[in-house]
Amino acid sequence: MTMKLFFAQNALQSEPQEVIISERFVDETGRPSAWKLRAISEELNEELRSQSMKRTKGKNGQGMPELDYNAYLGRMVAACVVFPDLNDTELQQSYGVRGAAAVVRKMLLAGEFANLAAKVQEINGFDNDMSELSDEVKND
């Protein structure tokens, strides 16, 4: 094995995936329109987690940082949606909100958002079982 296979230029790039998130958004022929989702880097993921921290009272009344999971999930989902463009001003205005994370929550029903979040996590490798990956490496 050579270290060169771990160099940035040799890493395979993940392609955006098209997924039907909702049956409610249809094209001109009446077929559900696909959303395009991408994977994000851990560097961006860390930034999203950092932006989603809130302060809660800890022992002795001291403020303790805590992850606001709902804010984090909204930011992560918004960062992974390539199409529709959640940053589009007209789209946000049509729902009466500002921000990509806010508009995606307003656009979708609760189950649709949960399915989108699950697909985003899958695309980003959160569904990979480490024991399965370990078995694959052993079998090679």
Description:
This protein is of the alpha+beta class. The chain has helices at 42-51, 69-80, 89-95, 100-107, 110-123, 130-139; strands at 17-19, 35-37, 53-57, 63-67, 81-83. The chain has a single domain, classed as rbstp2171. The chain contains six helices and five strands. A hairpin with a 5-residue loop joins strand 3 (53-57) and strand 4. Helix 1 (42-51) packs across helix 2. It comes from Paenibacillus herberti. This is Phage portal protein.
Summarize the structure.
The chain has helices at residues 42-51, 69-80, 89-95, 100-107, 110-123, 130-139, and strands at 17-19, 35-37, 53-57, 63-67, 81-83. With 140 residues, it is α+β, with helices and mostly antiparallel strands. The protein has one domain (17-122): rbstp2171 (2-Layer Sandwich), CATH 3.30.2220.
What order do the SSEs take from the amino end to the carboxyl end, as H and E?
EEHEEHEHHHH
Spatial shape: flat
CATH architecture: 2-Layer Sandwich
- The low-pLDDT segments are none
CATH class group: Alpha Beta
> What is the helix content?
40-55%
Rg:
19 Å
Q: How much β-strand is present in the residues?
A: 5-15%
Amino-to-carboxy terminus distance: 13 Å
Helix-and-strand structural type: alpha+beta
Largest sheet: 3 strands, antiparallel
Question: What's the arrangement of strands in the largest beta sheet?
Answer: 1-2-5
List the helices and strands and how they pair.
Elements lengths: L16 E3 L15 E3 L4 H10 L1 E5 L5 E5 L1 H12 E3 L5 H7 L4 H8 L2 H14 L6 H10 L1
Antiparallel strand pairs: 1-2, 2-5, 3-4
Helix pairs in contact: 1-2, 2-4
